[in-house]
Write a structure and sequence with these properties.
Elements: H1 13-48, E1 57-61, H2 66-76, H3 89-96, E2 102-109, E3 114-121, E4 124-130, E5 133-138, E6 143-147, E7 155-159, H4 164-176, H5 179-182, E8 185-192, E9 195-200, E10 205-209, H6 214-224, E11 231-233, E12 241-242
Parallel strand pairs: 1-3, 4-7, 7-8, 10-11
Antiparallel strand pairs: 2-3, 4-5, 5-6, 8-9, 9-10, 11-12
């Protein structure tokens, strides 16, 4: 029997029902959290350990040349059978880019197991003529491919030295040439880094000097080319000369 002022707690049906609903909510929450964790673990296993999403073949895009495609695949050395997400795409790209004709490689992973090597190919700026062979050189001065004959439209160049500096300097000159001069250019000769000379189809010569200030020299030459002369000198673009 309770005394005066005592608090009596009764666990009637309504109270028990509320308690049970709270327990059910906590149980559902625990089940949901457990399911999410299980799915996350399963997904991580599938992505990083399971062969389900593994690399099973390599495709090369950006060139239709079978020889280049074969070289790129061999250089890339993609570890087939390894889960896609565990592939070291930077290392694969670096290895594939060692192929001389390739300027850049982007590695793309596809969930059907394909590892795509998307190539950006080098574009020739001029053709190096050396000991009876023809070598393509890009705008950066990289010599990257020997061809059987000079491609139509490319300026042939002969260099006394074929160091990276010499190759790059001639590339700077070629890429700076205004179109009016390029169309009339027969060849380029580089005796040294300070002595680059352009031969025109007319037989006239342009003394370019070094590759320094090539953009300014090109602007000056664009005006001089309309003057009838057998010799143009833009080696000092602020004091050009003709004769």
């Amino acid at each position: 029997m309770s005394g005066p002022g005592a608090v009596v707690r009764e666990w009637g049906p309504s109270r028990r029902r509320q308690q049970w609903q709270r327990r059910r909510r906590r149980l559902r929450l625990a089940l949901v959290v457990g399911a999410v964790l299980a799915l996350g673990l399963a997904g991580a296993w599938l992505a990083f350990l399971s062969p389900v999403f593994a690399a099973d073949r390599v495709e090369v895009t950006g060139t239709d040349d079978p020889a280049v495609q074969e070289q790129v695949v061999g250089a890339a050395a993609v570890p087939l059978g390894q889960p896609l997400l565990r592939l070291d795409v930077d290392a694969i790209a670096q290895r594939a880019a060692q192929t001389p004709a390739v300027a850049q490689v982007e590695v793309r992973r596809h969930w059907d197991g394909v590892v795509e090597l998307a190539l950006t190919m080098r574009s020739p700026a001029y053709v190096l003529v050396s000991h009876g062979s023809y070598v393509l050189v890009d705008a950066s001065g990289r010599d990257y491919q020997t061809v059987a004959s000079p491609p139509l439209g490319l300026i042939p160049a002969t260099l006394a030295q074929t160091s990276p500096r010499d190759l790059s300097d001639v590339a700077r000159v070629v890429t700076a040439l205004p179109e009016t001069v390029r169309r009339q250019t027969r060849s380029i000769e580089s005796q040294s880094v300070d002595h680059i000379e352009i031969r025109l189809e007319s037989g006239a010569a342009i003394m370019w000097g070094s590759a320094d200030q090539s953009e300014l020299k090109a602007e000056v030459m664009a005006g001089l080319i309309n003057l009838a002369a057998s010799y143009y000198d833009v080696s000092s673009p602020s004091h050009p000369a003709t004769r």
